[in-house]
Amino acid sequence: xxxxxxxxxxxxxxEGASLELRCNYSYGAxxxxxxxxxxxxxxxxxxxxxxxxxxxxxxxxxFEAEFKRSQSSFxxxxxxxxxxxxxxxxxxxFNDYKLSFGAGTTVTVRA
Amino acid sequence: KAGVTQTPRYLIKTRGQxxxxxxxxxxxxxxxxxxxxxxxxxxxxxxxxxxxxxxxxxxFPGRFSGRQFSNSRSEMNVSTLELGDSAxxxxxSSSRTTASSYEQYFGPGTRLTVT
Lengths: 111, 115
Prior knowledge:
The structure holds two protein chains of two kinds.
Chain A (H helix, E strand, L loop, with lengths): L2 E3 L4 E5 L4 E3 L2 E3 L5 E7 L5 E7 L5 E3 L5 E5 L4 E6 L8 E9 L2 E4 L3 E6 L1
Parallel strand pairs in A: 2-12
Antiparallel strand pairs in A: 1-4, 3-9, 5-6, 5-10, 7-8, 8-9, 10-11, 10-12
Chain B lengths: L4 E3 L2 E4 L5 E6 L6 E8 L3 E9 L2 E5 L6 E5 L5 E5 L8 E8 L10 E2 L3 E5 L1
Parallel strand pairs in B: 2-11
Antiparallel strand pairs in B: 1-3, 3-8, 4-5, 4-9, 5-6, 7-8, 9-10, 9-11
């Protein structure tokens, strides 16, 4: 069965610093991969997706992610974090009409 | 385009009662999925409907059920509520007509509290 692991439960980063969130997946075929963000009390917002092709994908809010098949990873990055990026981030893999999510990484931004 | 809407946004029920949650997908989207989010278990898939047919179901007891109507709106029902059913219930819709339609767009959720 497919699964997603987000090794970091919580990350604290200074405003203006770079951010990288890790995601590892377990899936036999070519995965459909997603990153979502959730602000407190809100639903999930899609940041970006990977289906095929270029392994570096751009998303909204200045985020990008790189698919590395050899490492079974799909890490999310942002060059310069803003205070509004404080939220919980979820990596997910799509298969059989459903999303399987990682446990999430909470990002705290300090001034 | 309006986003996914869910009603009600907040709900308080007592153990043993039943509850019905509603989801209206983005206009033109024919697929609706439901997820449960709790601090302990995270985000878990409940079920997915496409054109009124359930395509997949997660590992939840039979107390959890759902349906989809001809206008793509969906409802989920939980009978005989337990304290552990307290959660944020999220609905997502997808157009599911091309490869890119695997994108799922989420509503704000219904916060269910069982006392």
